[in-house]
Backbone:
DNA sequence: AGAAAATCCTGGTGGC
DNA sequence: TGCCACCAGGATTTTC
């Protein structure tokens, strides 16, 4: 399940290789979350300028227009000079002079959307409400606390919503809250400045570390070059319900928050 | 208005 | 072994 680190690892794994390539063809498979938003025949001839990222969206910047790619829950990208024939779950191919970029996504929660520019209303609808990037200077304690103050709901749910900070998904939300010693059920607005600072540091640390380690393979994540990630070897609480906490040995608890699983240690994480 | 629930989808798993 | 109910979850849409 790709969260920000997986998306960033994917970006780094093919950004350089696809830069300056010219699009030759587009192949569409089954429908994804949203329609492409343009006639696929408009894309051949365009040149790939760069591959950026905003939250969990990859941004393929052409000399004219931008392709937004979201991996959803089960999506992964491959980029190689030659790829085998498309399988049942390969729903998008961008064939270029330097290789083919392919989206493989069994559950089809992912999306590939074309916009003429990031100022386009469609792009604004998808990207406009996103909070600051956690691994950039735009993510600071003061601003983070100000945004948390606006939400009375549980801090775990607020992190997932992506308005206070973008890119923290279900796995890393549990992990960051454990690192910060904060109970996931605490109302976001009630966190003290000290605890917000701890959470801020924890998010930066856990996401940064996950990027360094190549993302998570809790399901079957691999980068666009096929390299698996290693983060799953080091989760402190996620997926460890009933197992002893690595710090204090009390059993890790599992609760549901907004239909999502949350893992925490009742001893290490204070309400 | 803000928060919770429903929704999309399919592979994997556990029970019988 | 087969069948089935159920779970996983990002982000939008709908309901409360």
Residues:
């Amino acid at each position: 399940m790709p969260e920000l680190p997986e998306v960033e690892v994917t970006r780094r794994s093919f950004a350089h290789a696809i830069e300056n390539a010219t699009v030759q063809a587009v192949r569409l498979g089954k429908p994804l979350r949203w329609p492409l938003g343009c006639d696929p025949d408009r894309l051949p001839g365009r040149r790939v300028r760069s591959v950026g990222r905003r939250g969990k969206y990859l941004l393929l910047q052409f000399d004219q227009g931008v392709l937004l790619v979201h991996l959803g829950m089960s999506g992964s990208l491959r980029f190689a000079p030659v790829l085998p024939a498309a399988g049942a779950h390969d729903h998008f191919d961008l064939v270029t002079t330097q290789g083919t970029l392919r989206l493989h996504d069994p559950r089809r929660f992912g999306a590939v959307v074309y916009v003429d520019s990031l100022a386009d209303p469609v792009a604004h609808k998808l990207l406009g409400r996103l909070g600051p990037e956690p691994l950039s200077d735009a993510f600071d304690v003061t601003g983070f606390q100000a945004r948390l103050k606006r939400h009375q709901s549980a801090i775990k749910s607020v992190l997932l919503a992506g308005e206070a900070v973008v890119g923290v998904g279900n796995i890393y939300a549990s992990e960051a809250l454990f690192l910060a010693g904060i109970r996931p059920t605490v109302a976001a607005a009630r966190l003290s400045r000290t605890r917000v600072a701890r959470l801020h540091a924890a998010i930066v640390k856990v996401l940064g570390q996950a990027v360094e380690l190549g993302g998570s393979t809790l399901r079957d994540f691999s980068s666009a070059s096929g390299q698996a990630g290693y983060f799953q070897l080091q989760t402190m609480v996620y997926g460890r319900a009933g197992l002893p906490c690595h710090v204090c040995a009390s059993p890790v608890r599992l609760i549901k928050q907004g239909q999502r699983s949350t893992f925490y240690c009742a001893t290490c994480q204070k309400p």
Remarks:
- The beta strands of chain A are 23-28, 48-54, 57-62, 66-70, 76-80, 90-96, 99-104, 111-115, 253-257, 260-264.
- Chain A has a mean pLDDT of 88.
- Residues 33, 72-74, 89, 105-109, 151-153, 157, 219, 258-259 of chain A lie near DNA strand B (CB under 10 Å from a C1').
- Residues 13 and 147 of chain A are 33 Å apart (CA to CA).
